[in-house]
Amino acid sequence: MVSVLHTFDDGRSGVALGLDDPKNGREAFHALVLSDGTRALILQDAKGKLVLGFGSSQNNIFGNKDSLSFVGAKYFDKKDNLVWEQKMNKTERTNK
Q1: How far is it, in rounded angstroms, from Cα 28 to Cα 30?
Q2: In what order do the strands lie in the sheet with 39-45?
Q3: Among 1, 35, 47, 53, which has the minimal tally of Cβ within 10 Å of its Cβ?
Q4: Is 41 helix (H, G, I), strand (E, B) or coil?
Q5: Is it the case that residue 91 has pLDDT exceeding 70?
Q6: Whole-prediction pTM value?
Q7: Which residues 6+ apart lie within 8 Å of 50 measured at CB?
Q8: Which of 96, 25, 26, 29 minimizes the C-alpha distance to 16?
Q9: From CA 56, how far away is CA 21, in angstroms rounded?
Q10: pLDDT tens digits, 51-82
Q11: Would the CA dihedral through 17, 80, 51, 28 be positive or negative?
Q12: In this predicted model, which residue has the larger pLDDT, 7 or 33?
């Protein structure tokens, strides 16, 4: 198992596992566990990325810009525009 502990500029930290695509050497898969409660699997190719999991409020991984947590899946195009999302949680505010 390979993992990397990362600390963000805002003080959050987490562990990530990343796998590259052998055809082009670019990132293809990530598994993330962050100190803010975010748990995510990210599948990525040249067209965009699919993000699955649990995102805390104000989280960049899921593009959360408000005080609501997110449980579900989101697909972003290669310019990081949200194309599709499927929420699987009730609308709940997180305490921060």
Answers
A1: 7
A2: 4-7, 13-20, 27-34, 39-45, 48-55, 70-77, 82-87
A3: 1
A4: strand
A5: no
A6: 0.81
A7: 42, 43, 44, 73, 74, 75
A8: 29
A9: 28
A10: 999 998 888 889 887 778 899 999 999 999 99
A11: negative
A12: 33
